[in-house]
Design goal:
- There is one protein chain.
- By secondary structure, the protein is α/β, with parallel strands linked by helices.
- It has 29 helices and 17 strands.
- Strands 12-11-10-13-14-15-16-17 form an eight-stranded mixed sheet, with helices on both faces.
- Helix 15 (388-401) links the parallel strand 13 (379-382) and strand 14 (407-410).
- The chain is globular, with a radius of gyration of 28 Å.
- Bound molecules: (2S,3S)-3-hydroxy-2-methylbutanoyl-COA and nicotinamide-adenine-dinucleotide.
- (2S,3S)-3-hydroxy-2-methylbutanoyl-COA binds at residues 25-26, 28, 62, 64-69, 82, 103, 105-107, 110, 129-130, 133, 135, 137-139, 141, 277, 280.
Amino acid sequence: MSFTVSLERDKTHPSIAVITVDNPPVNAMSIGVPGAIIARLEEAQADREIAGVVLCAGGSGGFAGADIRVQGKAWPEDEPTLSEMVARLENSTLPVAALLRRNALGGGLEIGMACRYRVATPGTQLGQPEVKLGIPPGGGGTQRLPRLTGVQAALDMIVGGDPIDAKKGHDIGLIDALAASDDPVSEAAAYLASQVESGLRPPTRDRSVDGTDPTLFESARTVAARKQRGQLAPLACIDCVEASTTLPFDEGLKFERQKFGECVSSDQAAAMRHAFFAERQIGKVPGLAKNTPVRDINTVMVIGAGTMGSGIAMCFANAGIAVTLVERQQEALDRGLSRIAKTYAGMAEKVRLSSEEAQRRTSLVTGALSVTDGSDCDLVVEAVFEDMDVKKSVFSELASVMKPGAILATNTSYLDVDEIAASTGDRAGDVVGLHFFSPANIMKLMEIVRAERTELEVLASAIALGRKLGKIGIVVGVCNGFVGNRVYSTYVRETEFLLEEGATPSQVDGVLTEFGMAMGIFAVRDLAGLDIGWANRKATAHLRDPVKRYCKIGDTICENGWFGQKTGRGFYLYEEGSRTPKPDPDVDAIISKCAVEGGISQRQISNEEIVERAFDIMVNEGAKILEEGIALRASDIDLAMINGYGFPRWRGGPMCWAGTIGLGTVVARMRKLSETHDFWEPAPLLVRLAEEGKTFADWDRENA
Ligand code: T1G
Ligand code: NAD
């Protein structure tokens, strides 16, 4: 047992007892903790001198809610549950005030809401994030929150899952008092003592629910169906909040319990727990000690003010870091700077940012026409053309002008970072890849490419930087396309093969979005611009195995000058001013022609086949990447695909998804296809795990 739950008298208000829960690192309600809280409450109740109890968290000060590690598993029968403990707090003969500090999330907030009063320190994050774990709240949150804040605010918090801060909580009735002194425990005790004196209000359960307009639920369902497409938990959350308006409190609790039970054992919840823990692994690199020194990054130079450079500059400005943005020509520089100014102005217009903040971020980026203007910066991110010679000349100049200790990063998508690093001579240890994704100011994924000579300190600094920028920073090794683009390119290739064999772009896209992808592959390619991939295919044509199947549909579309949305045509047709993809009979003709030329007889392709081929191929490439040591964990590959390519988080990423299908099934499907199709030889690691009846999560555990 690594936790303690203590009971003491408050120093300044001895009639108030203080129960402090200390369960590092985040005071989760692990097995035994609810029982210990009940025991301390009973001790307080047995003491006639005590008039009230303050419940608070020690250590980090926050209450992170239920212990996610035991979710979906059996809870010991003789141990009180979080729900039982919450009921005891609410029905306590002594009034209980919760002191909420730092964060009160999920079960942590539910504990607070079951108490008679809630006192919070400013800045404390209050939330019901369960929906992000594939479940509705299970400790009465869906019944108590609407009673405290009204239906709309409760729906926003429970269905959206994002936290609010204590001040907003105070404004909407969730928090009774803010404690700003340096002794919030005594402040909470004083608050409770004054309530005891002036007369207690009824417990939360006895309040009525305000704002019960039934249309709120229908519109919440419509929004959830669009924004959280395919997910069970948001709908369960809405049902539960609705139940708070139609059922008596205890019945509402039972209803919530039932919905919670249905969701917590689902594949979706397991996948989202997987994603949660995967995110907590990302900074962990074997051989990289926790106390590795980290270089300060307070000023940054970004070279190249094109699509990526301007987006990357905004990532830093968003984090309050000053940026020198460098181009060769004034005109290109002005274009980049004005793109940045426009983006921030647009955010201010949509009220996503205050206009002062938009202004502040815009002015954090200043332009320059020479890298010497940024030679004092702590970090450089190069985002010039994807051309090895251009990159090498930039890096050799950087090696001579940048101050000692500056980190030299490249945003290359495919090029060999070792070769780029070699062009810096004895500064190769300072070189790392920082592969941002487009649009860089929005996409959460950042691949941190560890080159052969990257120093540990530089790697540790890049990981810390990823956190500071709010990115999912995944450490990867050097190979063509690193992790994300390499996996993705197999999916791109296979879905094009499916067209050649008889599927249509809209059928494939329909199936993929139904599966949960943020967008269909052909709609995405049209959005991103088909010319970039085409140029890359031409540049790497010499690397292709001439014996293996090659599909010319994408190339033929490009030869017509159709590059996707920007030219009004691509895999689809776009009417003037519209972004809605329409099937294009001319593209159908190109597909048929390519099939004939490739000697492929077209047939009816089933939706199941599309899912299997699109995602099995990703899994197989992921297995190869793991075998080669390019990714450290299968869960990193999952996070890359979730955060960079629109793979549904509620399926946990491709490697996790394969586990729910069964690796044996995936291998069997691959072997069957490999009889007639190129590229379907299962990777040895995939075969081995399948034979051992294991999943990639097992591989991660065994190799941790
Ligand atoms: N259970 C178990 N472990 C947890 C945990 C939790 N709730 N929260 C964090 N950890 C571990 C995490 O894996 C990591 O472990 C370490 O703590 C530090 O976390 C009944 C059903 C609280 C804001 O969703 O959002 O209540 O890697 O690196 O940046 O309705 O952790 O060191 O081994 O993230 O300071 C709802 C989840 C649960 C909150 C702290 N609660 N946690 O952030 O540290 S469901 C949540 C967080 C529930 C009820 C339901 C964050 C944090 P390790 P960290 P941090
Ligand atoms: P881009 O063509 O939009 O921008 C490149 C910019 O670099 C141009 O404005 C050009 O004038 C400038 N430039 C070229 N040489 C320069 C030099 N020596 N000094 C200063 N500026 C110079 O290209 P992009 O799409 O922004 O891509 C940039 C890099 O980012 C490439 O390596 C690319 O592979 C990578 N990348 C692109 C994407 C994407 O989706 N576009 C995603 C991830 C990474």
